[in-house]
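Researcher: We're reviewing a set of sequences before deciding which ones to prioritize for further study. For each one, I'd like a predicted 3D structure that I can look through quickly. This is Multicopper oxidase CueO. If possible, include the structure in token form so it fits the rest of the review sheet.
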Amino acid sequence: MMKRRQILKASAAALLMAPPVLRAQTHAGHGTPMAGHHEMMGDAQHGAHADMAEALLPLDRMPSQRPLEALPRLKNASSKAGRFKATLTAAPAQKTVANRAPTEFWLYNGLLPGPQIEVFEGDEVEILFKNQLPEPTTVHWHGLPVPSDQDGNPQDSVPAGGERIYRFTLPKGSAGTYWYHPHPHGLTAMQVARGLAGTFIVRAKDDPLAELPEQHWMISDLRLDTQTHIPPNTMMDWMNGREGQFVLINGQLQPRIKLTTGTRVRIWNNCAARYLRLAVPGCQWILLGTDGGLLEQAQAPMDEVFLAPAERVEVMVLTEGNLQGELLNRYYDRAKMMVQEPHTDTVLAHMAVEAKGTPSMPPTLNTLPDLGEPVAFKAIEFSEMEMDHGSDEPMTMSMLQSMFMVNGKVFEMDRIDLSSRVGEVEEWRVFNNSHMDHPFHLHGTQFQVVQREQDGVVTPEPFKAWRDTVNLRPYETVVFHVKQLTPGIRMFHCHILEHEDLGMMGNLEVI
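Model: Here's the predicted structure for Multicopper oxidase CueO, in token form for your review sheet.
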């Protein structure tokens, strides 16, 4: 792990060095791309400004408190039943979202957020993807059980100006709440920061909650400087993960949301590093589903909903009487490095909740199979590099590029780190041997968490659920069971996108 007292003693000269560029990068989100895979991100002067006292646009410069808008849908161009066909284009786009001045985003089909894709189990999906960005990218179908060569792995990048077709069929049992985003190695964090992300829903034809009204809340964050540009990552961003000052729902700042207590709400945490502890004072939440779909039964009411980066849930909101209030994101201490911040709550939306009593819920929402006894076992360790170089040595680019590791190694594109067999039930023990939170994500399938272990205390998972992302607290071990159903390369990594780009990732070969 990284010893923070040594980092804190590092000379202030370190802050004159912007973090490493892991790609050819557009300075401050606009202008001409800077060449060189290992160039500095911006010049030294910009790095010092960004890390010491970055000038950000005040919150009141973005319009707020407008009615929540539904996410735009990607139109199905096919008239054939059971087939979804569409075109998705990633390209720069100018949009005015704050300070009455344009910002250059990188967007899917010119939309912020990207268009929502909605299909049914069993559908054949065909997406023509066009890359009109100045650099390579991919589309990763986060959480979906798609073939390895269709999953947007970093090994399968689409070059600037190129295009490809993604094809897959979604099997029975895959109904759930998913999303899509870029996954080119070293480029992912800034591509998402510039706006490339969209939601994806797979529906079941026998959904027991199909008749309920439904709302979708895609939560993301956006950083704008005083010139309304999207600035590059700072040194602190690379170490802790980027958080923008504007926290948005469906691309809107503090929207006004109206819903009744019988509404099914799907929530996405599409932030690169921000954790969510959602609360509406005077209300409670009923958890209905997780990443990979509905639970077997609705859970007991709770006061808040926790979402690590990339996690999703399905919930209902309960209140005894009509309520006017606020949707808050309560402070969560994820043990950032070199950062002290006020422990304050953030207002995400203004809520008007109409009480219609506790909705009648089916006793069984879903049937989740028991995966059975594992026949193979894997141990994963997230860690941060040791710094025994002396208290006065500043942070360098090479240190950052070897800072975050999986099983003691930084990601290499052509190295196979683990192997699995198709159809075998495995038990994975993922240990966070560091003193900051890391969300773990596995491609290609969903897993079932069995237990969590910390400080010698074993806590069984209270209910069965399909997940593809799970948070690990410092020095916590999460144990889950999983089965891969198709061969190929699958990624596993930290879903703080900066950590992923810096190499906190591995290759799993399924044979």
